[in-house]
Amino acid sequence: MKTVREFVLPPPGSPHWVSSGDPPGGLLYLAWGRRDYGRNPIPRRLHHGWSYLAVMAGRPTFLAGTRRRVLRAGDLVVAGPDAPYGWEDRPGASCELLVWAWSSAPSFGKRVGERTCWIRNGSGETAEELRELHRVTRREIQDSDVRSSRVLQALHVLLDAAFERADGRKMDFAERDLQRLRLAEEWMRRHLEVRAPARALADYLGVSPMGLLRLFRRAAGLSPGEAFQQLKMREAAVLLCRPGVSVKETAYMLGYNHSGDFTRAFAKFYGRAPSEMQEEAARGRKKSGPSKSHRTSENLVPIGIGRCQKFAE
Fold it and tell me: Strands 85-88 and 42-45: what pairing?
């Protein structure tokens, strides 16, 4: 029995878009929002073009050929034009999907065949990226002009990159975390005078404040504020060990309005007052000279303060 090829449109009122003529930039179809496949299942069909599917919420059952697979939030699918698929779900359950259909194949490094259903698990980071790409795609369709075809072709390339990166994300997730952590450290070292850096740092890294917190907890074992305070106190130790730099000047350079606030923060971190460190550094200079006193200031930092010890290395 020949498998039917068609776009099975969602029920009336469900958001979607279908190209009515020459597909702009090769885009054939868009769909988004909640779906009730328990009540309105989609039988296995051959669909037009290459379908890109992202499950944003729920646990729908994906029917691929003769197989059935329960998908979860974060799962991604690319189905070739000769790979029949459909959807089912539990009674009363619903899911949320993002769908694109393109006339051309993905530009993945590893070829996805016309009869292939490529299925991978993404992440929260991938989901945010895909939501934004789908939103921009919809906006380009709604406000189309003579440049829209090129814009949509570029969006197809970005979509390919997002899907392909999700495929390798589990393998290099830790490496990307460390790369972002290094960028975060560089930013914080340049902005030690900032009093509340979390929002600005999140904006610099292109993540949400909650995403920033997860990054630091996962990769450094402490919060962004704790890491920032550690770097600030390490810099304070270096400044205080320089001849002629006062406690008040150090406090001002590190963004404190009152030297008393700085003194309390310093004493909490090091277990001694800033003036004590200055006196110790002065004694070291008398005995060994300036170069050794600077090295001594580096060694005054307490060990075992958490995995973010790497920030000072």
Answer: antiparallel
